[in-house]
Design brief:
The structure is a single chain. This protein has six helices and nine strands. With 162 residues, the chain is α+β, with helices and mostly antiparallel strands. It has a single domain, classed as RNA polymerase II/Efflux pump adaptor protein, barrel-sandwich hybrid domain (OB fold (Dihydrolipoamide Acetyltransferase, E2P)). The N terminus is likely disordered. The termini are far apart. It holds the Pfam family GCV_H. Belongs to the GcvH family. Keywords: Lipoyl, Mitochondrion, Transit peptide.
């Protein structure tokens, strides 16, 4: 019994480590409490995440993995001009600048940008402190989710391969 439990623990430890390191979720954040219905959490191979609510409201940001790779964030460029407009999957919806580098953020889906996270303008470090919570970048209205998006399990596999 103990050896079976030990084998299971050894097998699951890397996954738990990756999950903790890559996706630190903040369940109290608006990205998860926006609606009472189930939230669909998806990822891209470019290290963006989205939380999709039953009413079509979708929050988009970068993953913990991406925020750690960038280092301490110093500036966030938000798409203020795009609020109220539509974007297509793959369009640039912002950029994150850090002490190490800068990286563009891409829309993981087609939709309408309804809000940008203006709190990031005064506190860009939220992207590092809470990337999958209060560090969200845009709020969108989205219809159907793209089939190319990754589940959390598939995203963890992607991280293991990198």
């Amino acid at each position: 019994m103990i050896s079976a439990l030990s084998r299971q623990l050894v097998k699951s430890t890397p996954r738990l480590f990756l999950r903790h390191q890559s996706n630190v979720l903040n369940p109290k954040s608006v990205v998860f409490t926006h609606s009472a219905g189930p939230v669909v959490l998806k990822f891209t191979d470019q290290h963006e995440w989205l939380s999709h609510h039953p009413d079509g409201t979708t929050f988009v940001g970068i993953t913990k993995y991406a925020s750690d790779a960038l280092g301490d964030t110093t500036y966030i460029e938000l798409p203020h001009d795009s609020v109220g407009g539509t974007v297509s999957k793959g369009d640039v919806i912002g950029s994150v600048e850090s002490v190490k580098s800068a990286s563009e953020v891409y829309s993981p889906v087609d939709g309408e940008i309804v809000e940008v996270n203006t709190a990031l303008e005064e506190n860009p470090e939220l992207v590092n402190k809470d990337p999958m919570g209060d560090g969200w970048i845009v709020k969108m209205k989205v219809g159907e989710l793209d089939g190319d998006l990754l589940s959390e399990e598939d995203y963890i596999k992607l991280l293991q391969e990198e």
